[in-house]
Amino acid sequence: EMNTTHDDGSGEKNDLTPEHPNVMLSSEAGLLLGGHSWTTVDHEWSRSSNIPPGAEQNAQWYSSPEKSNHDSLTDFMQKNRHDKQTRKITIFPQHVPINPVSDPLSGGDMNAKKIAGTNESLRVRVRVIIKHLSLNARFFDGFDWQIRPKPNISEKDKLYNNYMLKKKEVDPRKIEMMEKRAQMMGTLLEDGNMFADEKKTFEHHPLPEERGEMLHEAAKQRSQVRRSNQYFQISFSGLKLRQDSFVETSEHHLASCMDLTMSDFFIAETISGNGPVKMFGEWLNECKHPRDTNDGFVMMKMVSMRPTSKISADGRLMSDESQVTLELLPLRFLIHQSALRFVRTFFSGDERDHGPDTAEDHDDENPDDIPGVFFQNFKVKPCKLKVDYLPEKVDLDALKHGSYVEIINLMPLNDMVLMLEEVRIRDMTGWGTVAAEVLSRWLGDICSTQMHKFLTGSAPFQPIVNLGGGMADLVIVPVKEFRQGAKLGKAVKKGTSTFAGKVAYEAVNMTSSLSKYTAKLTNKAASKLTKNTSTSMPSRPTRVPRNVRDTAGHAYESISHGLKEANYKIIILPYREWVRSGPAGAARSVVRGIPVAVLAPISGASEALSYAALGLRNQIRPDVRIEEEAWRKGLNGDF
Fold first, then answer.
1. Of 67 and 486, the one with more pLDDT
2. pLDDT tens digit string along 362-386?
3. CA-to-CA dists, residue 524 to 479, 530, 555, 599, 608, angstroms
4. Which one, of 421, 426, 417, lies nearest residue 442 by Cα?
5. The dihedral of CA 615, 617, 620, 625: what is its sign?
6. How many CA atoms are closer than 13 Å to the CA of 341, on its beta-carbon side?
7. How much is the pTM?
8. Contact at 8 Å (CB) between 423 and 379?
9. 508 touches 466 (CB < 8 A)
10. Which stretch of DSSP H or E encloses residue 342?
11. Exposed, middle or buried, 466 (CB in 10 Å: 0-12/13-18/19+)?
């Protein structure tokens, strides 16, 4: 049903219903668009529609039927200028498709006939369709099922085991003599037989060293329980899949076709802070790379062909030969070293769980096993990558022994953009092998062509590089504008404004970063000087500030918190000590509280300045704010 309005020229809009005389609604006026009865449009203007049956409708300019009696549209408009009941030019937006498709996945054959090289429709044996699939999986720190270590063998059990071993070696007379001695010793210890099966002696009374080990083990088990506030989460949504497996025939070798699209995917963690933070996801930026609504975070097309011979020359089964095209949207990493270490430890496993013969067992392959997927051609299209890395500490011992990877932990990386080249892999078996090869080629290309970005993207050098680019814009932008036909003065003005904008952005961004680091450092020092946990600064709001006005609440809260801490250390605690132990205790309390009284206001003021500078930065660069808002999308969703 289409709701259409009519403007009569007086500024008032009236519905086109049978009550209005300027439109006739009758059965004769109905027009079946595309042959479908539900698309009937019973308006007068539809009689003159020139849309062919089955063609898609578009928003167009339509004139009144009276226009045909005039030579031109201008004459028609001049004649009806004072006639408020006659419409001059009207736009009719038509948003109803002629042939709507309720399920896009079920339509078409995914070019199967073209791939198979036949004109006849292929018979589908199995069709798998996933319309919408979402998944949230959280991996917590700790253990739900504790792994209990093997109990230590006590001295009494060792003695008993040695006795049983010697029993098999000595003659029966010596065995009888040893049993008599053991019986006599057991009688003295009020245990009957020392080597009886129950072995009750000292069982409920462990030795002091055993008691210490038991307490240590119990404390260790209590510390290994699940920590519900520390986890990393893997989430994806909007997964759509269609896979058609075709009947085997002699006319073609096509085995299956598959289309996969995933609209969103990210990995979040709570290890580095109090709340969830994305560490991997899509780089959303409508200015640099706008995303089409039909695109997915992952888009993959896979076509499999049956081999000419299912048995190889050495008697092994042959898998289908597949060709894959994979496309990824721009990616972004925001990695904290602590979170990266946690994920690596989580999947590292325990070496004690693997026996010494594990590697040898994998060498013996069964020729009857189902082989892995053979990729005749695997293509990954190029994509962009933005990396932010926040290190915590450097392993100097590993660096001294030649582990140059630790160099990356010296300085944080901010907004480092890398270009991942197109990768083509041929004649390789297994998804894991292909993924490892793709990563290897990407790393090799980065190391050979983009290694300098690790220096220019590091925190000390990034502002200098950005300011250098702004100074270059003083020359490049005016020349570019002048070549495009702009006046010289206007071109110079645009280049100067571009440079000034970059200088202001870098100054505000540097102020926000330095003041945040100062607040963190002073708050950490104040926490070490006192056992009061209230010295921790108020957490920042989850909402990204749009301007300086949005930062007023958190800035006021931070400054108030610092002043309250100073007041507590300088006034409240000394007064309590005065009441309790007199002037001497009050003086000692004041001396102990002076460092915290100095550091707490500095920490609060630094946090307020940092957050206010962040709001000013977002006000200067709205595109950066929009990118951060998009990056935080999906973090507050529950299972």
1. 486
2. 445 555 566 788 999 999 999 999 9
3. 51, 10, 19, 10, 17
4. 421
5. negative
6. 12
7. 0.68
8. yes
9. no
10. helix 337-348
11. middle
